[in-house]
Amino acid sequence: MLSEPSTATVRATLPAVGAAIGDIADLFYRKLFDAHPELLRDLFNRGNQASGAQRQALAGSIAAFATQLVEHPGTRPDVMLDRIAHKHASLGVTAAQYDVVHTHLFAAIAEVLGDAVTPEVAAAWDEVYWLMANALIAIEERLYAQQGVVAGDVWRAWEVVSRTEETADVATFQLRPADGAPAPAFRPGQYVSVQVELPDGARQIRQYSLSCAPGSALRSFTVKRVHGGGAPDGEVSRQLHDHVRAGDRLRVSAPYGDLVLKSAEAPLLLASAGIGCTPMLSMLEHLADSGHRAPVTVVHGDRSPADHALRADHALFTAKLPDAAAHFWYENPEQGHPADRTGLVDLTGVAIPSGTHAYLCGPLPFMRAVRTQLLAKGVPAADIHYEVFGPDLWLAEG
User: Fold this and answer.
1) In this protein, which residues make up the domain named FAD-binding FR-type (predicted)?
2) The pTM is what?
């Protein structure tokens, strides 16, 4: 909880800091990478840095955390903190790196806000930072302990066993630990980080949802080729698609992620768009394997049936459940596809059972639209869970 003097100071300065937080985040990253270029090369996503998405996500998370502290002092945004901590753990972030961030973040705050940063203001925002940082450090330490790894040392060598072309732009890679030891357990919906060495020597990291059920002997993740306007957009997906084949090795993290099934008995809605289907496939296969009997509503949107990765599995696992229905929307459907399933996902005619827990994954506009429709149908906000591939811009976009 923020101290009383700091609460008053943060409340008074929050509008000014909030208005400048984008500039602060931009300057922070420039200072950080000037001092530690290896972080941009081997830890941070260069594509997200180039697009500004990471800066936007950082600004949104800091503003949201500070607002929570002053408006709801008895609580903290645990959902947001858990999501960030899982991502950090999958990257191998350590407690010592928070000191590095603190140094350059507060240098950026002082430079952007100038004389407005009095000793009292600096002390108050320092308290905000360490409340957030220490909360993340504690969660990350717990996550490392759960996986039985030393803090930050999350990487193992994995061998690619097979590769399957799902669509023209999507491939699934099956892997096993290169050392022959058992693969670590995971929960359906979780992801791994994959570290890929690029032609310029950088070791860039991306997260990919595991698209298999936990009972599988092998682990698989599915990658969509990103067609960017040039480096670094899509540089990792292109490297995987163009160069990784059976017999190659990849460095893969322990599994993390907070988009996991919260209730084994509740009715479920699994909604996805595009490559967002991958965590839903893991959940569906697990539900089929475990004999889930409550209603399951499967919703997916895509450009066309040919673009719908793992389409056959999506339908197959749904059909294995005793009380489940799949609804696929396509913007460019094949002949005979229902007219009311053409275009963007629209839940108007889809029955949502009482007590449904919803899980969403896909582009942010899709998830916002589905969430709005679910709220209108009476699904409580607390029962709607989501996963974002890349920086979480939900808060940053308001």
Assistant:
1) 153-262
2) 0.93
